[in-house]
Amino acid sequence: MALANGDGIPLIQERITINNLSKMKEKGEAITALSLYDASLARFFDEAGGEVIVVGDSASMAAMGRPNTLPITMEEMLVFSRSVCRGTKRLFVVGDMPLGSYEVSSELAVQNALRFMKDVGDRPCNAVKVEINMDYIERVREIAKTCLVVAHIGLNPNKAEMLGGYRTLGKTKQSAEELCEVALAAEEAKACMILIESVPEEVSQVIRESVKIPVLGIAAGRKLDGQLLIGADLLDFYEWPGNRKPRHFKIYKTEKSGLTPGGLVREAFSWYVRAVKSGEMPGEENVHFLPNDDRPEVARYLRDLRSNRANQPVF
User: Fold this and answer.
1) Domain annotation covers residue 303
2) Candidates 197, 201, 202, 267; catalytic one
3) CATH number, residue 212
4) Each residue's pLDDT tens digit, 69-90
C-alpha cells in the first residue's frame, strides 16, 4: 500500500531524488517547495507531503531580521542547512549559495558547493542553488561536475541593484530572449533543475516546455512543474516593508478551531501542498502577465521559439 499523509496525498516513501522529481515532471504531477530554515518546520512540511525545501538566503530577512539577502554568509547558510537536514530524511533539500560564495571563481564555487554536501552532518543537502545569468553558466557547469545544481534565473535578489531593483523580468522581447537563452544554457551545462523568479507566466511556460529538467517558479505563473514559496510568507511571519505584500502568494488562514500553534503550521503546510497539486495555488490574481504594449512582439518570439524547439530532432 502506498504511503499517504493525513490528507490522503500520496508520499514518495524513500528519500526524494532528482529522478523522482524528473518523473513527476514527466507525469504532470506538481512539485511543492518551500523555503524553510529550521528542523521543526522541515519536519512539518515533510509530514504535509511536500517534495522540496530550499534553504534560501532569504533567511537573512525572514529569520535574521536583515533588510535584504546580501549580508548572509556561508557559515550562516550552513547552520540553517544543518538544521533543515536534521528535520527531514525524505525531502529533497537545496542549499542556497550566498553572495560571494561563487562569483569570484569556479574553483571557489566548487569548494563552497561541496560544503553543503560535506559540512552539514550525516544527512547532506541534495543540491545547491546558484543565482545566474549568462555570465555564470560556467559556474553551473563546474559545480555540476561535483554535485547537483539548481539554476535560479529571472529576478536574482542578490543582484537586484544591477537589475534596476526588485522587478519583474521578461516583459520585453530582449529580456524574454535573454531568459530563454539562460535557461537553455543552464540545462546544457547540466543543471538538474531551474527556478524562475518574478517572470510573466507566458515566458515561464515556454521555458518549462523547452527544457527536459524540472522547472519551479516563484512569482512566475501557474504553468510550471512546481511552485516555491517562502515559508514565512505563507505563514504571515514576515512583515514586508510598508506592509506591501507582493501579489504572487496567498497567506494561509485557518478555518479550524482548537489547533495548537504547531497544529496550525502543519495545517498551513498541508493546505499549501493541496492547493499547489490541485492547481488552486497560484491563482490568476497571483500571476504576472506580459504588458499590453509588449505582448505582441514577445508573443511572436515565444511562438517562434516553441516552434523551433518542437522541430528539433531528438537523438
Assistant:
1) yes
2) 197
3) 3.20.20.60
4) 999 999 999 999 999 999 998 9
